[in-house]
């Protein structure tokens, strides 16, 4: 809590107060160094506290956020710095969950963990002969929750909820997102992660979604040796997905792996509506095809504690979004963004549509490598041209998007690690065509059916709406709004109010100083009261 308070005060002072006194350049000069120091302090704090603070650090270091590389590098490696629990504590936890001694539950358990995460750790083991004969395999991995982690998570969530309430009172934040709702979504996924029965159910649901897909695999749950704080899975260890050298040595094309990963991700999001929300490189293996097929492989996902689910309405909106991206349809893109709740319905979208159209015309279809070869002055000119349009639009981040954006960001990072020239546009286009051709199965057919009904309904109302519009024009009731002009007027109004407060502050302060020698009480009162207009002049928040 002290760390969060200091960070918020620092951001308020350097990013809001100093620029209002004409010291924006001074504040900007040391911004990167300040953020690096802040990141290092949080790194040390998370490594010391463990629990959910590790996960917060991993979240900030992912490509989801807009932090520069100098900042994210300070937070990398937090997962590797988690100290493992002593094996005796793990044995005691496992025996409490299973109700039998560990040497009876398994033929062998390796005391050295293969992974030590913030919430639990994993050990290799072998099943007892009877269970192994029934299942057809003996090599397994057991995941054991850290003893006492539930209490640590409870304390961490209480602290994060309080920080979320603080942020909800900052106008710059609450205009864009509901911070407490984002914390609650993080809390929900975190509590699910410390329930291994829930993870086992996720494994089997995901496996059922891809039962007919030979390119996607999962471990098998050993229910006889699983409980709420202990999970036993078949050992599916293979090549780490970002180990390019090992893939090439096995005759597997990294670019083909990147394309398959993109396709599998799109299938999870746009077809199944149930997706792996933590697809970092350590959670995806590349398994060579059975039978020694040259270049053949399957993607094997592990760690299903963090999953995302999309309802039909949101999935329909996402499909509309990728159809617009694939077709470079700026108007369709704007409509899809409104439907998803990112862009509020009250937004005046004429200028936004023009900006997106220009974006598609100039940069549509380019991969990461191509974008890096563009003249930076061209990118800067483009950003400068449309920055005012973006700033004036009423957009927000729906809480349901947290896991979705994290997943897409992580997948984008993994595909770039496999092949820097990999172009996600190339993966979107054929997938969108597959959906349009009915490749998504019954879900896509229902989605297109609902869309057709919506279009027919709009067409049926069109004559009445045109007539109503003509009537308003005849009466002179048609109003024209300009978001840019409205924004500038709001800025001018706010500046006048703050200037008035600053003048009042100066008058009260100087008056108090002059009166203090002759009337100490009145002078002190005036000096004290001067703090009120000062706060109005520099305060960045607006209390609800």
Furnish the topology, listing elements before pairings.
Layout (H helix, E strand, L loop, with lengths): L1 H19 L3 H6 L1 H19 L2 H10 L7 H7 L11 H12 L3 H4 E4 L5 E2 L3 E8 L1 H7 L3 E7 L3 H20 L2 H4 L4 H15 L2 H14 L6 E2 L12 E5 L4 E2 L3 H6 L4 H19 L1 E3 L7 E5 L8 E5 L5 E3 L2 H16 L2 H10 L10 H14 L4 H5 L3 H17 L9 H17 L5 H13 L5 H34 L7 H33 L4 H10 L1 H8 L6
Helix pairs in contact: 3-4, 3-5, 4-5, 9-11, 14-20, 14-21, 15-16, 15-21, 16-17, 23-24, 23-25
Report Rg: 28 Å
Say how many strands there are. 11
Look at the helices and sheets and give the structural class.
alpha+beta
- Mind summarizing the main beta sheet? 5 strands, antiparallel
pLDDT below 50 for ≥5 consecutive residues: which ranges? 445-459, 540-544
Descriptive overview:
- The chain has 544 residues and is α+β, with helices and mostly antiparallel strands.
- The strands form 3 sheets. Strands 1, 2, 3, 4 and 6 form a 5-stranded antiparallel sheet that branches.
- Strand 9 and strand 10 form a beta hairpin.
- The chain is globular.
- The two termini are 22 Å apart.
- The C terminus is likely disordered.
